[in-house]
Amino acid sequence: xxxxxxxxxxxxxxxxxxxxxxxxxxxxxxxxxxxxxxxxxxxxxxxxxxxxxxxxxxxxxxxxxxxxxxxxxxxxxxxxxxxxxxxxxxxxxxxxxxxxxxx
Length: 103
What we know:
By secondary structure, the chain is mainly alpha-helical. The protein has a single domain, classed as Cytochrome Bc1 Complex, Chain D, domain 2 (Orthogonal Bundle). The protein is 66% helix and 0% strand. α4 (59-71) crosses α5. The longest helix has 22 residues, at 2-23. It is globular, with a radius of gyration of 17 Å.
């Protein structure tokens, strides 16, 4: 019985560690993934067009916004479509890239 509890606890720790590692964004990967974002948001994430949507934000705000679009909590047809295609790792990578550009 105890060995099953220890095994379950160890499995839980491994899953938690994997999730934490996955959540860490890679700015270099994010820069590659950001190519299609630049059309509307500009190459530096500081906007483009007549009403510039700035996305060079800190990582938490950026990720929260994408998750809100993905869930439908935040409405914008193009952003909802784009966000639904992104994995958690994609979002973390993009967030790391745009957070670096915020400066």
